[in-house]
Amino acid sequence: MSLLELDRLTVKRGECPVVDGVDLNVEPGEFVGLIGPNGAGKTSLLRGALGLLPHQGRSNLADMTPRARARHAAWLPQAREVTWPVSVEMLVALGRTPWLGSVGPAGADRAAVDRALARMGLDAFRHRTATELSGGEQARVLIARVLAQDTPLILADEPTAGLDPAAQIQSCAVFADLAAEGRGVVASLHDLGLAARHCTRIVMLSRGRLVADGTPADVLTSENLRSVFGLRAYFAQTADGPVFQPLSVTR
Amino acid sequence: MLIAALAGLVAVLFAASLLVGPAALGLGESLRALFRGEGEAVVLVMREIRLPRALLGAMVGGALGLCGAAMQGFLRNPLAEPGLIGVSGSAALGAVIALQTGAAAAFALALPLSALAGAVVAVLLILALAGPRGTALVLILAGIAISALAGALTALVLNLSPNPFAASEIVFWMMGSLADRSMTHVWLAAPFMALGAAMLLSLGRGLDALTLGEDAAEAMGIRLARLRLVLILGTAALVGAATAVAGAIGFVGLVVPHILRPLVGARPSRLLPAAALGGAAMVLAADIAVRLIAPDRDLKLGVLTALVGAPFFLHLIWRTRRAAA
Question: Rounded to the nearest 5°, which phi and psi values hold at A170?
Answer without folding.
Answer: -60, -45
